[in-house]
């Protein structure tokens, strides 16, 4: 596509802001996908290009968390494998079946996530007894949310975070760090199938990837420095915004 330098610069900045927000609470795709559509990128290519740029952002945040000792890749290897498998299956199936039923359920799920973080008094403190074994968590949560992320995507980061908090009993910082590892895994798995289909627009995707990489690194630093005080309200706000946006897209007559 032939875009002006001004438009390309704007997409770079949008990706940076989205990467920053995504590293903290997820939901960056709700900013970047509309931006891509707004400059004239066709829907299928917009989704593929978003996965391309999003993979760099989630990799940046993941790398920062690993290097600072907040997460061990060895401990997460099973979750990584099952998330990759789930995302790959989702990316394949989305090309063959109607996503309408699934998308109609997501706003309600996002509202539930917001309410959980808003009203659960012990949310994000960590230290409790895990509700699932490590392998059971990897299989159930990794496969199912990985599938969802490959199939549709919005809110996947929030879903991973709430599962790490509620089921694995991690604190919010540790849960966020682990979420970014699995976010990158599911993004990368879906991206591979988009590349095989020839869908990403590489010039735009790589430019936005640079912005997203920088923004995600800054967001990861904020997670470590501010911790639960910032993550909890951000997850609530982002989840509610995503729910409202999806409801507006699915039922525009409600907002007239």
Task: Explain what you see.
The chain is an all-alpha fold and 256 residues long. The chain has one domain. Helix content is 76%, strand content 0%. The protein has 10 helices and no strands. Helix 1 crosses helix 3 (43-67) and helix 5 (100-119) runs antiparallel to helix 10. The longest helix has 25 residues, at 43-67. The mean pLDDT is 86.
Brief summary of the model shown:
This protein is mainly α and 256 residues long.
Helix count, per DSSP? 10
Q: Could you state the order of secondary-structure elements as H and E?
A: HHHHHHHHHH
Global mean pLDDT: 86
Query: What best-fitting shape do the alpha-carbon axes yield?
Result: globular
**Radius of gyration from the alpha-carbon trace, in angstroms:** 17 Å
Note the beta-strand portion: under 5%
- Specify the biggest β-sheet: none
Distance between the termini: 35 Å
Q: Can you give the helix content as a percent range?
A: over 70%
Low-confidence stretches: none
What is the strand tally?
0
Total domain modules: 1
Question: What structural class is derived from the secondary structure elements?
Answer: mainly alpha
Family: Belongs to the 4-toluene sulfonate uptake permease (TSUP) (TC 2.A.102) family.
Membrane topology: Multi-pass membrane protein
GO cellular component, one term: plasma membrane
Transmembrane segments: 78-95, 101-120, 188-210, 230-248
């Amino acid at each position: 596509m032939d875009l002006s330098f001004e438009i390309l610069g704007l997409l770079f900045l949008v990706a940076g802001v989205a990467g920053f927000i995504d590293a903290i609470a997820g939901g960056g795709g709700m900013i970047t996908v509309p931006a891509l559509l707004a400059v004239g990128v066709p829907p299928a290519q917009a989704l593929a290009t978003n996965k391309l740029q999003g993979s760099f952002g989630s990799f940046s945040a993941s790398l920062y968390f690993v290097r600072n000792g907040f997460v061990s890749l060895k401990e997460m290897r099973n979750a990584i494998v099952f998330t990759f498998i789930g995302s790959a299956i989702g990316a394949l199936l989305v090309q063959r079946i109607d996503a309408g039923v699934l998308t109609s359920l997501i706003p309600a799920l996002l509202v539930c996530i917001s309410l959980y973080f808003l009203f659960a008094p012990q949310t994000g403190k960590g230290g409790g007894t895990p509700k699932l074994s490590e392998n059971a968590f990897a299989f159930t949560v990794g496969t199912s949310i990985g599938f969802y992320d490959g199939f549709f995507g919005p809110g996947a980061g929030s879903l991973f975070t709430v599962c790490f908090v509620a089921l694995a009993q991690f604190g919010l910082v540790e849960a966020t760090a682990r979420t970014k590892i699995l976010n990158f895994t599911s993004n990368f798995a879906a991206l591979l199938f988009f590349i095989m289909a020839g869908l990403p627009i590489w010039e735009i995707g790589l430019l936005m990837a640079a912005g997203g990489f920088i923004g995600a690194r800054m967001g990861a630093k904020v997670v470590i420095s501010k911790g639960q005080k910032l993550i909890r309200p951000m997850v609530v706000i982002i989840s509610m915004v995503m729910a409202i946006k999806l409801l507006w897209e699915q039922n525009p007559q409600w907002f007239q």
